[in-house]
Design a protein that fits this description.
CATH superfamily: Phosphotransferase system, mannose-type IIA component
Strand content: 15-25%
Pfam family, one: EIIA-man
Shape: globular
Strand order of the largest sheet: 1-3-2-4-5
Radius of gyration: 18 Å
CATH topology: Rossmann fold
Distance between the termini: 65 Å
GO biological process, one term: phosphoenolpyruvate-dependent sugar phosphotransferase system
GO molecular function: transferase activity
Number of strands: 5
Order of helices and strands: EEHEHEHEHHH
CATH class: Alpha Beta
Number of helices: 6
Protein name: PTS EIIA type-4 domain-containing protein
Structural class: alpha/beta
Organism: Anaerosacchariphilus hominis
């Protein structure tokens, strides 16, 4: 059998990880958007710690994926959660972020979320959501965790090196 040769010109579909049968009405959806597998990696880590979570999705964009497909998945998830969702995007200015901005402007809707995400941030978002926080409070808690969560690994060792 002759292997299929890929030319790199084919358009692929953006990958979405979500348990579509586990949508719980009224619970804000947490949607992670990223280049590559970062969003799926964070989702997997959160589910390892807290088990499977309802109303969580990871959307990836890879080389050759059409930006319009990212837009279509954002729209599909927004509708699935009936607009009750929070977006966490890997960084400002990239295709996932730009497609989310286009979606927001085209539909005249306010998007709740944050630019940049980490496992501690998303764990905080899950905890805040469990406690009944609203979308703005969930975003604030996640961002606070993100800011406070970046620390020097072993500060006492750095102090010892400074004294030498």
């Amino acid at each position: 059998m002759i292997p299929e040769i890929k030319t790199g010109k084919e358009r692929r579909k953006v990958r979405v990880e979500m348990d579509w049968e586990q949508i719980e009405p009224g619970m804000p959806g947490l949607i992670l958007l990223s280049h590559g597998m970062a969003s799926i990696g964070v989702l997997d880590s959160v589910q390892l710690i807290y088990s499977r979570q309802k109303n969580m999705a990871a959307v990836t964009l890879d080389t050759g994926d059409a930006p319009q497909e990212m837009y279509a998945q954002i729209e599909k998830l927004y509708q699935a959660f009936q607009g009750n969702c929070i977006f966490f995007v890997d960084f400002n200015g990239g295709t996932p972020c730009n497609q989310l901005r286009i979606f927001s402007m085209k539909n005249g809707i306010q998007i709740f979320g944050a630019l940049g995400f980490s496992v501690p941030m998303i764990l905080s978002a899950v905890e805040s959501r469990r406690s009944g926080a609203d979308k703005a409070e969930i975003v604030r808690a996640a961002m606070l965790e993100g800011n406070e969560g970046i620390q020097e690994l072993y500060p006492e060792m750095a102090e010892e090196d400074d004294e030498s």
